[in-house]
Amino acid sequence: MFLGTHTPKLDEKGRLILPAKYRDELAEGLVITRFQERCLAIWPVATFAELVQGVRGASSSQQVRDYQRMLASGASDETPDKQGRVTIPQHLRTYAGLERDCVVVGAINRVEIWDAAAWTAYEASKESAFADLDDEVFPGV
């Protein structure tokens, strides 16, 4: 389970140091791809495989095909180096607007990487509605 907020910086080679608390779960490999709200998502390989199974079994509607294409065409499988760094391919850095300052967010089953300014704006826009979401999204919880 991925939790917390971290603020690493991209180095000049487009590498990001993964937070230490995430490294064990991602050490054997990960998949990084574009995600909603123009952030990036990182999944352990096994978790991404489960996601793909669900997507693969969905109907073949235009929306499903579009989602499959966008998810898979941007994906890159990576293995962190011994220092816990992972290279973020240029096309993904461009997609998410990543230059130097990043925010890495634990999102339960995945890790999200945001441009720092984009995360600040997103968080500010969602904070006031957060308390109301639990009853709407997860009734009875």
Characterize the structure shown.
Belongs to the MraZ family. One of its GO terms (molecular function) is DNA-binding transcription factor activity. The protein has 141 residues and is an alpha+beta fold. The protein has a single domain, classed as Transcriptional regulator MraZ domain (Chemotaxis protein chec), CATH 3.40.1550.20. Helix content is 43%, strand content 22%. The strands form two sheets. It has a six-stranded antiparallel beta sheet with strand order 1-7-8-4-3-5. The chain has a two-stranded antiparallel sheet with strand order 2-6. A hairpin with a 4-residue loop joins strand 7 and strand 8. The longest helix has 22 residues. The radius of gyration is 16 Å and the shape is globular. The mean pLDDT is 92.
Topology readout:
Blueprint: E1 5-6, E2 15-17, H1 20-26, E3 30-34, E4 40-44, H2 45-56, H3 62-73, E5 76-78, E6 85-87, H4 90-96, E7 102-106, E8 111-115, H5 116-137
Antiparallel strand pairs: 1-7, 2-6, 3-4, 3-5, 4-8, 7-8
GO molecular function: DNA-binding transcription factor activity; transcription cis-regulatory region binding
Organism: Microlunatus sagamiharensis
Main location: cytoplasm
